[in-house]
């Protein structure tokens, strides 16, 4: 492998893209041939692929296509060595399906996943023979995405989004090669006048462009890192993929109302202060977000202006550097991977110049020395650029085999004009990316007396271990040796295996995953993403009761793992869940949540343990949010080669009952009251996992939504449930006679309405203020909260008990996020006791959305012989309660 000109071992790569109207996947062998002066040439061989135009079929087609390609090539998931995914730009919902699938598939089998710019990959797919290609794709809303890239898929300019007139103004009337997606081609056909004339000089090479599997592989080829002596090896970046969003979510922040003087907020002082502080922090973050919209993990250069500001402040606070003026706003700051085939001659010359300026007394490296450093496949270099010009660099070398790695930092250097701005941290953060997953101790030498550098390294966990006399020549200066221990491996030993789902990589996918025989027990994983919580849970279902069918007893279901990540704070200033923000948050949180769940599972079972089945919420819920969870769940199931089950979210809330001692007994003719921010329903239940019947639901606001709106109008923040509940416990429930909706004889017996209650609270406050009921006469906020909460709990429990009476049910199940409310629990307990009805409420951690409830429902369905769901299933945001599981 080390011989120049030799062909290196090919790498098998799974490629995925859903950024266009096409569903693209393929298995591609990537070959890299070393040429002269350390340059490389890449070639690809496609083993199998599936490419189908279906603008709304990404969710249904992608994983089945991957499975078909594997079967066609005679391969299994464990044979894949890396995953390359188009990270956009593209329509958000479809884009996230591909990214969630690729990230989960790679995570499951323990291989790296790389994001590439989808427009660059398109250029690599269609622009052979053209040094430069403009790619235009449809961004909807009468806008186009644009980027210029080489035929090898290297980004030159962009990506950007804009109106056609603006794109034509920038790129029109130029004799350039242009690749158009079908949607843009149709739009250009309709142009007239000057706009049409602007396209006449274009050399249009295709009017149906999309990233092919080969183009995706070529666009990601630079990121596939071969290491000498090991056949080949990939840099295993641990960052989750981040989509290239060039537009912000369409979420309008409601106009903030001043807190009324008619309410005394003394009891809520801490809550009010916390809400005001959170809003201020989010507005600050919003300002920073504007400049970071094109930032994407693993896709070319990273926007780093916001991070630079943070790093500068951190360095100044630590005393490592003196703060300096920020870069001009138009000086784009980027940190990127630097390889020999990416480095221009000007880059090498600038590196040599900076080296000479910084280390003139220490035998500075020459241009040829840097060329050799970048050509060494064991070295990993990154570059800092300001307005496109190289202004700093850093390099680290991997010593020893990948199975037992050690690292040595070779250099970290910034041009003098860039020093003191926190930029060294940007270089270090990028330099340490391989360590986040591969692990290994790190060594370095630093000149004695260079206090800023020593302080920087200490902040990254290094400690001085010794001194080397006269190390630097010809100056004769001493070097301090510094060491950073392996921060990854000890945690693996403590937590049982590799980080997250990668721990299953060494286990043959055909081997049963459960620690005991599958006939006795099995592990079922559940994934939840219907709203603003990303949940991963695992249950163990014991099937030791041989007479289960005869006795009718339920299987023993035991909770093992419950990991939940919430995007609640991101929605706070909007006063409610914003669907697009929730979807983005799920994509970012899925892999970290899964890895935390797998670490917890391995603690309780064994290293290499993996689930025997994967279940997911398929509906009801927010459409975009559901797609992220479903795409990830399909990929984990396919990669682990285990059955997949698509189940009902509401059925999951009922199924947590199976985790209790009472859940061992058959559940017959029960009533479920499910109360959350999105649902308020009374359901008739005839067994966990059985079709349910909806008796009643809210006609407008859900109960949890009413809490949020009342909290917002009082200025108490979001979510409203916890803060109102806490204040209500201090207040007088009878202070204000708020109306009880839908309780008249002529109203529906089981339906709810809470919009009128919210309006009543607002009108009460307005009237009190108009009447001058302020100051000492202001009503305590705790009384407002207690009176509002009493009205909600009264209606909920009254109608639920009415349903029990009408149906003869002797069990009331209380579930959903609002079931954590103390007054609802207390009033339900009192009324159930008086009515002779057994009340069952899940533990507090299982009240809100979580993966455990999904796993519990799937376990029950499996125990009753339910067949796995087809991978071609789509999500159903309006799934009816009568459907516990979708099969196809």
UniProtKB/TrEMBL annotation:
Cofactor mode of binding and number, as noted: Binds 1 Fe(2+) ion per subunit.
A cellular-component GO term for this protein: cytosol
Superkingdom, natural source: Bacteria
All copies of domain N-acetyltransferase, residue ranges: 338-487
InterPro entries reported in the protein's UniProt record: AcTrfase_RimI/Ard1, Acyl_CoA_acyltransferase, ATPase_NBD, Gcp-like_dom, GNAT_dom, KAE1/TsaD, T6A_TsaB, TsaD
Chain positions recorded as substrate binding sites: 674-678, 708, 721, 725, 821
Pfam families: Acetyltransf_1 (PF00583), TsaD (PF00814)
GO process terms (BP): tRNA threonylcarbamoyladenosine modification
Residues binding Fe cation: 649, 653, 849
PROSITE patterns: GNAT (PS51186)
Reactions this protein catalyses: L-threonylcarbamoyladenylate + adenosine(37) in tRNA = N(6)-L-threonylcarbamoyladenosine(37) in tRNA + AMP + H(+)
GO molecular function: hydrolase activity; iron ion binding; N-acetyltransferase activity; tRNA N(6)-L-threonylcarbamoyladenine synthase activity
Compartments reported by the entry: Cytoplasm
Broad enzyme group: transferase
UniProt-listed Enzyme Commission number(s): 2.3.1.234
SUPFAM superfamilies xrefs: Actin-like ATPase domain, Acyl-CoA N-acyltransferases (Nat)
Entry-linked PANTHER family: TRNA N6-ADENOSINE THREONYLCARBAMOYLTRANSFERASE, TRNA N6-ADENOSINE THREONYLCARBAMOYLTRANSFERASE, MITOCHONDRIAL
The protein's role, per its UniProt record: Required for the formation of a threonylcarbamoyl group on adenosine at position 37 (t(6)A37) in tRNAs that read codons beginning with adenine. Is involved in the transfer of the threonylcarbamoyl moiety of threonylcarbamoyl-AMP (TC-AMP) to the N6 group of A37, together with TsaE and TsaB. TsaD likely plays a direct catalytic role in this reaction.
Similarity-based family: Belongs to the KAE1 / TsaD family.
The protein's name in its UniProt record: tRNA N6-adenosine threonylcarbamoyltransferase
């Amino acid at each position: 492998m080390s011989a120049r000109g030799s062909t290196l071992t090919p790498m098998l790569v799974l490629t995925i893209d859903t950024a266009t109207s096409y569903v693209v996947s393929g298995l591609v062998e990537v070959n890299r041939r070393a040429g002269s002066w350390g340059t490389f040439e890449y070639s690809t061989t496609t083993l199998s692929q599936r490419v189908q135009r279906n603008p709304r079929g990404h969710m249904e087609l992608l994983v089945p296509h991957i499975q078909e390609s594997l079967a066609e090539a005679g391969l299994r998931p464990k044979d894949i060595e890396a995953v390359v995914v188009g990270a956009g730009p593209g329509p958000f919902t479809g884009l996230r399906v591909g990214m969630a699938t690729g990230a989960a598939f790679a995570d499951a089998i323990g291989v790296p996943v790389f994001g590439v710019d989808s427009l660059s990959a398109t250029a690599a797919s269609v622009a052979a023979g053209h040094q430069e290609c403009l790619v235009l794709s449809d961004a909807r809303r009468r806008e186009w995405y644009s980027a210029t890239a080489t035929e090898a898929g290297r980004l030159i300019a962009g990506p950007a989004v804009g109106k056609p007139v603006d794109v034509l103004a920038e790129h029109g009337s130029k004799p350039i090669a242009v690749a158009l997606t079908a949607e843009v081609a149709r739009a250009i056909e309709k142009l007239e006048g000057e706009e049409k004339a602007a396209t006449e000089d274009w050399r249009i090479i295709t009017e149906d462009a999309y990233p092919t599997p080969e183009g995706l592989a070529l666009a990601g080829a630079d990121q596939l890192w071969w290491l000498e002596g090991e056949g080949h090896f990939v840099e295993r970046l641990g960052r989750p993929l981040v989509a290239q969003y060039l537009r912000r979510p369409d979420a309008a922040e409601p106009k903030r109302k001043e807190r009324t003087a008619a309410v005394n907020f003394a009891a809520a002082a801490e809550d009010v202060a916390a809400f005001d502080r959170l809003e201020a922090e989010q507005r600050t973050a919003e300002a920073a977000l504007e400049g970071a919209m094109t930032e994407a993990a693993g896709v070319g250069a990273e926007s780093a202006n916001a991070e630079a500001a943070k790093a500068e402040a951190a360095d100044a606070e630590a005393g490592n550097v003196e703060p300096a003026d920020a870069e001009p706003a138009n000086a784009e700051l980027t940190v990127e991977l630097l390889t020999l085939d990416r480095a221009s001659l000007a880059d090498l010359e600038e590196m040599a110049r900076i080296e000479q300026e910084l280390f003139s007394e220490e035998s500075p490296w020459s241009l040829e020395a840097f060329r050799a450093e970048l050509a060494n496949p064991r070295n990993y270099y990154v570059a800092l650029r300001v307005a496109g010009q190289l202004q700093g660099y850093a390099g680290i070398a991997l010593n020893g085999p990948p199975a037992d790695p050690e690292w040595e930092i070779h250099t970290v250097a910034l041009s003098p004009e860039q020093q003191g701005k926190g930029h060294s941290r940007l270089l270090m953060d990028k330099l340490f990316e391989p360590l986040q997953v591969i692990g290994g101790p790190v060594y370095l030498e630093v000149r004695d007396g260079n206090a800023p550098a020593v302080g920087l390294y200490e902040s990254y966990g290094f400690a001085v271990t010794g001194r080397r006399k006269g190390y630097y020549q010809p100056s004769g200066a001493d070097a301090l040796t510094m060491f950073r221990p392996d921060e990854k491996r000890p945690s693996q030993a403590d937590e049982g295996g590799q980080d997250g789902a990668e721990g299953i990589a060494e286990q043959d996918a055909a081997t049963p995953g459960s620690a005991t025989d599958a006939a006795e027990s099995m592990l079922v994983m559940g994934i939840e993403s219907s709203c603003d919580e990303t949940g991963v849970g695992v249950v163990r279902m014991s099937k030791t009761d041989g007479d289960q069918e005869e006795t009718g007893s339920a299987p023993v279901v035991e909770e093992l793992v419950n990991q939940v990540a919430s995007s609640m704070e991101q929605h706070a200033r909007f006063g409610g869940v914003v669907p697009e923000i929730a979807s983005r948050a799920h994509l970012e949180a899925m892999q970290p949540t899964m890895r935390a769940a797998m670490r917890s599972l391995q603690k309780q079972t064994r290293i290499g343990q993996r689930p025997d089945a994967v279940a997911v919420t398929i509906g009801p819920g927010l459409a975009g949010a559901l797609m992220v969870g479903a795409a990830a769940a399909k990929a984990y199931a396919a990669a682990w080669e285990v059955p997949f089950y698509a189940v009902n979210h509401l059925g999951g809330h009922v199924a947590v009952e199976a985790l209790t001692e009472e859940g061992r007994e058959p559940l017959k003719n029960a009533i479920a009251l499910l109360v959350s921010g999105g649902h308020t329903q009374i359901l008739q239940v005839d067994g966990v996992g059985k079709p349910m019947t909806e008796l009643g639901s809210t006609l407008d606001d859900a109960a949890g939504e009413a809490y949020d709106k009342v909290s917002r109008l009082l200025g108490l923040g979001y979510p409203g449930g916890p803060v109102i509940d806490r204040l209500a416990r201090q207040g007088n429930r009878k202070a204000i006679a708020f109306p009880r909706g839908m309780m008249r004889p002529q109203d529906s017996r089981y339906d709810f309405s809470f919009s009128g209650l919210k309006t009543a609270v607002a009108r009460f406050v307005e009237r009190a203020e108009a009447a001058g009921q302020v100051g000492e006469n202001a009503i305590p906020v705790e009384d407002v909260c207690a009176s509002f909460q009493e009205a909600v709990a009264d209606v909920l429990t009254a109608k639920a008990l009415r349903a029990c009476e009408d149906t003869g049910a002797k069990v009331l199940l209380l579930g959903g996020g609002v079931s954590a409310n103390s007054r609802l629990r207390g009033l339900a307990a009192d009324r159930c006791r008086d009515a002779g009805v057994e009340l069952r409420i899940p533990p507090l951690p299982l009240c809100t959305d979580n993966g455990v409830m999904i796993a519990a429902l799937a376990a029950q369905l499996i125990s009753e012989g339910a067949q796995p769901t087809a991978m071609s299933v789509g999500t159903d945001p309006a799934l009816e309660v009568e459907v516990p599981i979708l099969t196809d």
